[in-house]
């Protein structure tokens, strides 16, 4: 069951730079909010969190490549980038700000996601929503730079996605 109080308190800024995203009518603000709420519920996030804010940029390879080069020193496109407001402890700080927290920004590249979906024979929507979940977990402070953390993060993703009817993306 979705927390109705928190549902009213999500500020989601959604920007679409690549026109091809508009062909996918299920990728819209309401569905993204539902995934975010469901994720917070599944993670049993502290009830002191009353309002979250994040931004999503639906863009293309050239744009995401420039961000990847500038901020990660990798001169190539990628499927998604996450820019958390803070490296860790962001949710614990919500108590200090009346339950409000700005989590950060997520970027998604249409071409890379479409290509990966085709090559991996995955449904485009399923692949996008997996990447959205993955990026959102990064905003919450999850990381996968070491094996133990990667396995933990993947387990969370698999569990949440399965409850949404999306197959394990790692098989």
Q: Keywords for this structure?
A:
171 residues, alpha/beta, Collagenase (Catalytic Domain), four-stranded mixed sheet, 43% helix
Proportion of strand residues? 15-25%
Q: What is the CA-CA span between the terminal residues? A: 29 Å
Radius of gyration: 16 Å
CATH architecture: 3-Layer(aba) Sandwich
In CATH, the topology is named: Collagenase (Catalytic Domain)
Q: State the domain count.
A: 1
Number of strands: 4
Oligomer, anyone?
single chain
* Average pLDDT score: 89
> Which stretches are low in confidence, meaning pLDDT under 50 for 5 or more residues running?
none
Q: How many H/I helices?
A: 6
The SSE order reads HEHEHEEHHH
Name of the CATH superfamily: Metalloproteases ("zincins"), catalytic domain
How does this model look, in words?
The chain has helices at 4-7, 29-42, 61-72, 110-119, 124-139, 147-163, and strands spanning 10-16, 51-59, 80-84, 100-109. The chain is α/β, with parallel strands linked by helices. It has one domain (4-163): Metalloproteases ("zincins"), catalytic domain (Collagenase (Catalytic Domain)). It has a 4-stranded mixed beta sheet with strand order 1-2-4-3, with helices on both faces. The radius of gyration is 16 Å and the shape is globular. The two termini are 29 Å apart. The model has no long low-confidence stretch (mean pLDDT 89).
């Amino acid at each position: 069951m979705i927390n109705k109080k928190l549902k009213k308190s999500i500020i989601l800024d959604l920007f679409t730079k690549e026109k091809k995203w508009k062909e996918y009518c299920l990728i819209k603000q309401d569905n993204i909010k539902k995934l975010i709420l469901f994720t917070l519920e599944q993670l049993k996030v502290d009830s002191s969190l009353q309002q979250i804010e994040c931004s999503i940029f639906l863009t293309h390879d050239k744009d995401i490549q420039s961000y990847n080069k500038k901020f990660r020193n990798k001169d190539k496109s990628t499927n998604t980038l996450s820019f958390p407001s803070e490296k860790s402890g962001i949710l614990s700080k919500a108590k200090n700000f009346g339950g409000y927290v700005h989590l950060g920004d997520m970027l998604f590249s249409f071409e890379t996601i479409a290509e990966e979906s085709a090559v991996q024979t995955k449904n485009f929507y399923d692949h996008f929503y997996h990447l959205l979940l993955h990026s959102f977990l990064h905003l919450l402070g999850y990381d996968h730079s070491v094996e133990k953390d990667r396995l933990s993060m993947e387990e969370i993703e698999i569990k949440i996605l399965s409850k949404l009817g999306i197959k394990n993306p790692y098989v």
